[in-house]
Amino acid sequence: MITRRSLFVAGGGALLLSACETPVTLDGRFPIMDVLGTQSDTSDFRSALRRADLESLLNGPGPYTVFAPTNLAWAATSEQFRNGGAASLRNFIAGGRLRLPDIQARGNRVRMLSGIDAVLVGGTAAAPRIQAARAGAAPSGASASILRPNLLCSNGVVHILGGALIPA
């Protein structure tokens, strides 16, 4: 029999459990996929990572650096690129925990898992720009602003981009 008291106890237990849930923060305690989940403007990119079976990689020990395009930037890429699966998405992932100062210390160039390079090409300190390049070559293609750099994760770093890293 369900009584008011049993409903209160059950409801109180649910309330207590929901209070124990820790919100995802950007202080390095949560994995990349969880941090991407806090950024509403990268939901399409995060969904693409899941469809390409890269979620376990980016929830694993890493470390990785992810250059995540916003939904608007992701939508601006070709359908062929968006549907390219893991091969296309590796253009946005580098090995290592690379904050902007770390990239600058490497001569402004980072090798992505796809084999292309991501190169810091200027901009301002508040809005640096990054561009894709064939391995060892000069940057080519459109550049993108880093809108939100250095989002710390337990297994790496996320940088939110206003464009996509696709070499010409």
Q: What does this molecule look like?
A:
- Helix content is 34%, strand content 27%.
- The chain has 168 residues and is of the alpha+beta class.
- The chain has one domain (24-161): FAS1 domain, CATH 2.30.180.
- Strands 2-1-7-6-5-4-3 form a seven-stranded mixed sheet.
The CATH superfamily title: FAS1 domain
The string of secondary-structure elements, in order, is HHHHEHHHEHEEEEE
Biggest β-sheet description:
7 strands, mixed
Shape: globular
Low-confidence stretches: 13-18
Annotated CATH topology: FAS1 domain
Radius of gyration, in Å, reads 19 Å
Number of domains: 1
What distance lies between the first and last C-alpha atoms, to the nearest angstrom? 69 Å
Mean pLDDT: 86
Oligomer: single chain
State the helical fraction: 25-40%
Number of H/I helices: 8
| Fraction in beta strands | 25-35%
Strands, total number: 7
In the sheet with the most strands, the strands line up as 2-1-7-6-5-4-3
Q: Structural class, from helix and strand content?
A: alpha+beta
The CATH class name reads Mainly Beta
